[in-house]
Amino acid sequence: MTHNLDELIEQYRAELFDSVLPFWLENSIDKEYGGYFTCLDRQGKVFDTDKFIWLQGREVWLFSMLYNNVAPRQEWLDAAVSGAKFLKEHGHDGNFNWYFSVTRDGKPLVEPYNIFSNTFATMAFGQLAKATGCKEYESIALNTWNEVLKRRENPKGKWNKLHPGTRQLKNFALPMILCNLVLEIQHLLDESMLKKTTDDFLHEVLDVFIRPELGGIVMENVLEDGTLCDCFEGRHMNPGHAIEAMWFIMDLGRRLNRPELIELAKDTALRMAEYGWDKEFGGIYYFMDLKGCPPQELEWDQKLWWVHLETMISMIKGYRLTGDKRCLEWFERVHDYAWEHFKDKEYPEWFGYLNRRGEVLLPLKGGKWKGCFHVPRGLYQVWTVLKEMKEEGIEL
Question: Which residue of 106, 196, 197, 356 lies most exposed, with the fewest beta carbons within 10 A?
Fold first, then answer.
């Protein structure tokens, strides 16, 4: 059933500004030690006080981005600065190697093995530098960016548990996130750096992980030489990751004035949505195996919040930018599934984890992996695109 554009705009606006953002502002800010609580139960009560650095960075980014792009609201800036001060003082080892997690008061818990702590710290301080004009924040963003570039070939560094030389795999997640990160900090980079890194990241995504010989689907892991590997990790599929990456590519296509990138990303997103859709119970699988073998991840058939939010973003962007009606059909299909199953009808914020049948597995609103990021970012992105469509006279 076709939705009404004005009603959709209001639905996403109200959910973001009247429900989801107040939930995080009221419940996540640690007024004693700074930073944020992310382990929040269904009603917003804190059930664990450990702080996970990439979620801290994501929340700094989110409120900074809203301050920059929506309105200069002081409460948003205050929330971002609170997290940034905590991160600056406790989040890294002094050389911009960002820990995975720390205690509530900032003592290191888990070493900086995860490069995504660095990528989200870069995003956070890049956006906050834009909001405040603070040179220190700009310096932190650029120093961390440089560390990311140094670690690209060996993201886990000395914390890599794999034996060297036997089966060296590279993962899609890093070049994918870098396609977004380079746009997030483009105001801090000179044009030559922007062009070189963008070309590198696009090459990895488009020429290494999208596989024409498999019909154009996206692999999550390949060998270092770019060939496929018939093992658990080599057959591993993550449809949500692939679909999310495609709206990053669409944004790059607009930035670079390369419509062929937008078209390729749109077609790939459609292909991966079809590939990942559960035709019996609805929703998109979390993990799959290329050959249909039993996946090693026991949670493979769960339905996760971020997968569906990122799919909505890619599909509505694909429709707006190309007019492909298949994108609109997929947007409406995933919109209906997500609002029916992930939105909590009694309390603010969305559930994160459903079983295959779409029933709530965990009633938490935040935890070790779910924070103030995918739900508000997804709502913001869809709301923004819908508004642009109305301004441009694009109909549903």
Answer: 196
